[in-house]
Amino acid sequence: MWSVPESRDDCAHRPVSPPPPWPATVRATLWWHRSTADAADHGPGGATIPVTLAMVVDYLDSPVGPYREILASPVLRRGLVPAMAVPFIAVDSAPSVHGGREHWLLPKVLASFTGDVLGSFCATGDTWRVATRAAPRGPRLPIAGRLAFAQPAPGRATSRGVARLRGRFRYARVVVDADGPTLSRWLRPGTHRGIVIDSGRMATGPARVR
To answer: What global pTM score does this model have?
Structure first.
């Protein structure tokens, strides 16, 4: 499965998860920055946009129960709707690891989390650590849209999925610190533009391989 070292997982057996769609109530912080010079080395290849997108998410409920997550796409795939290509994603739920890998070709791995995704938050794996601090500002505004992701599949195929979201958000500044075998080279530390979603409903549909 396509991934960076931070998302490699040697466990052969995980609790089985239900198939999509996966509806969920969510809280999240998202941020973005211009990709570093090394980011393309960890991207999917092909036509891409030099923007790195990352997020930390608190799933208050889901088909596998509540869990938290961090993910990042070093570059975006080019298209009518730019899509994330996700080689780094971690959660604190074994059934969610199964679901990500089985249903969407997302290389989920287990990690530990502390703090609040809308404030100070820390995600830690065996060889990596990411800390975020979000400072929201301005009014709460409605948000409705979708997040697309396109994962390399066996052969020359691509697994494409879409998560649809509705909720309320605020603009934010997000301070980020990242360390790991590759993360320190493409998940840029510092203060970045972002948003916090303090209340939202999201549904992730089945992937389509083509």
So the answer is: 0.96
Q: Which residues constitute the domain of residue 180? A: 21-209
Compute the distance between CA of residue 62 and CA of residue 51 in angstroms, rounded to an integer. 29
In a domain, 10, yes or no: no
Q: Give 61-90 pLDDT, tens digit per residue.
A: 999 999 999 999 999 999 888 999 999 999
CA distance linking residue 210 with residue 200, whole number of Å = 30
**Which of these, 205, 207, 147, lies nearest to 21 by C-alpha position?**
205
Residue 196: alpha-carbon gap to chain centroid = 14
Gap between the Cα atoms of 169 and 139, Å rounded: 8
Among the listed residues 179, 181, 58, 182, the one whose alpha carbon sits nearest the alpha carbon of residue 113: 58
CA geometry: angle 14, 15, 20, nearest 5 deg: 105
For residues 188 and 176, the answer to whether their CB atoms sit within 8 Å is: yes
List the alpha helices (DSSP H) in the chain.
94-104, 183-186
Q: How many domains does the chain have?
A: 1
pLDDT in tens, 183-210: 999 999 999 999 999 999 999 999 999 8
Cα–Cα distance measured from residue 141 to residue 154, given in angstroms and rounded to the nearest whole number: 41
